[in-house]
UniProtKB/TrEMBL annotation:
The gene is cmoB. GO terms for molecular function: methyltransferase activity; transferase activity, transferring alkyl or aryl (other than methyl) groups. This is tRNA U34 carboxymethyltransferase. Pfam families: Methyltransf_9. Carboxy-S-adenosyl-L-methionine binds at residues 91, 105, 110, 130, 181-182, 196, 200, 315. It catalyses: carboxy-S-adenosyl-L-methionine + 5-hydroxyuridine(34) in tRNA = 5-carboxymethoxyuridine(34) in tRNA + S-adenosyl-L-homocysteine + H(+). Coiled coil: none annotated. Catalyzes carboxymethyl transfer from carboxy-S-adenosyl-L-methionine (Cx-SAM) to 5-hydroxyuridine (ho5U) to form 5-carboxymethoxyuridine (cmo5U) at position 34 in tRNAs. Belongs to the class I-like SAM-binding methyltransferase superfamily. CmoB family. Gene3D superfamilies: Vaccinia Virus protein VP39. Keywords: Methyltransferase, Transferase, tRNA processing. Homotetramer. It is an enzyme of class 2 (transferase). It comes from Chania multitudinisentens RB-25. One of its GO terms (biological process) is tRNA wobble uridine modification.
Length: 323
């Protein structure tokens, strides 16, 4: 079973200490009542991975680890076999001792778009909501974060994170918890909160923005990355049953409408930092994610539209401050 005692110890004496009033009971309930049917299989893969201490570790420009002397072909084959039992790998990529996990998303490209527009992360305590495999947590650590906490209820992603952590030397500066944002109390303890690729999955997007705000310290920064549509401050797309084959997409505002939403929730210094179209090079099928991806979700004759006829995915990065 994945243990969270190291995380509890790490937050026991800092601004997150009051989280310990509720968090251990939530985790215990999850362990007793909510384990996925494949969790034991996934966790066994993590258990069978060797605990490695890389001679060279780069979290600043990538998530990559290497030894001075290469691992043997047999060691590499065993590690790759375990990692492949944790497919599909969606957020990455990771380069681990010569094993290149070519994930569905080029999350490094997203990071390159986001990083120039945000406050420096050095020394900060950070929350990443919907963190997936934790790729961006490692990049946050690479930027000098004091502590990077990710939450994501998908248990496969937790096991992927723990697998990578084990291969990176057991680094304790990043942690993933199997929770959704609605399970967090109002912590008001994070210097920066990231919500990337989450907002359009929320039935009540303004409630989500308030939940994010409640996790920030005064003058803390929200980094919001999400789907948007073209248009003015009044433009919001409400898709039908599916958007780009995703069922749980509720509201896709224009960037200007989203700026208004943030201001309505009490954020200040709201800035539309970046807007760009998602390409089929950034999100695609790979040897580590073999099911359908963006190319199959777009109109084959017109890539400016989804298969349902909606505008193709356009993504924006906004930053805002809690007053």
């Amino acid at each position: 079973m994945i243990e969270f005692g190291d995380f509890y110890q790490r937050i026991a004496k800092g601004p997150l200490s009051h989280w310990l009033d509720t968090l251990p009971a939530q985790i215990s309930a999850w362990q007793r009542e909510s384990l996925h049917g494949k969790f034991k299989q996934w966790f066994n893969s993590v258990e069978h991975l060797p605990a490695l201490a890389p001679a060279r570790l780069d979290l600043r420009h990538s998530v990559s680890a290497a030894m001075n002397e290469p691992l043997s072909p047999g060691q590499l084959e065993g590690i790759e076999k375990m990692l492949r039992t944790l497919m599909p790998w969606r957020k990455g990529p990771f380069s681990l001792y010569g094993i290149n996990i070519d994930t569905e998303w080029h999350s490094d490209w997203k990071w390159d778009r986001v990083l120039p527009h945000i406050s420096p992360l050095a020394g900060r305590t950070i929350l990443d909501v919907g963190c997936g495999s934790g790729y961006h947590l490692w990049r946050m650590v690479g930027e000098g974060a004091h502590l990077a906490v990710g939450i994501d209820p998908m248990q496969l992603f937790l096991c992927q994170f723990e697998a990578v952590r084990k291969l990176l030397g057991g680094d304790q500066r990043a942690h993933v918890l199997p929770l959704g944002i609605e399970q967090l109390p109002e912590l008001a303890a994070f210097d920066t909160v990231f919500s990337m690729g989450v907002l359009y999955h929320r039935r009540s997007p303004l409630d989500h923005l308030y939940q994010l705000k409640n996790q920030l310290v005064t003058e803390g920064e929200l980094v919001l990355e999400t789907l948007v549509v073209a248009g003015d401050r009044h433009q919001v797309l409400v898709p039908g049953d599916r958007y780009a084959q995703m069922r749980n997409v509720y509201f896709i505002p224009s960037a200007e409408a989203l700026k208004c939403w943030l201001e309505k929730c009490g954020f200040i210094d709201v800035n539309i930092a970046d807007i760009g179209t998602t390409s089929i090079e950034e999100q695609r099928r790979t040897g580590w994610m073999t099911s359908e991806s963006l190319a199959e979700f777009l109109d084959p004759d017109d890539h400016t539209k989804t298969v349902e006829g909606y505008p193709a995915p356009l993504r924006a990065v906004l930053t805002a401050k809690k007053p």
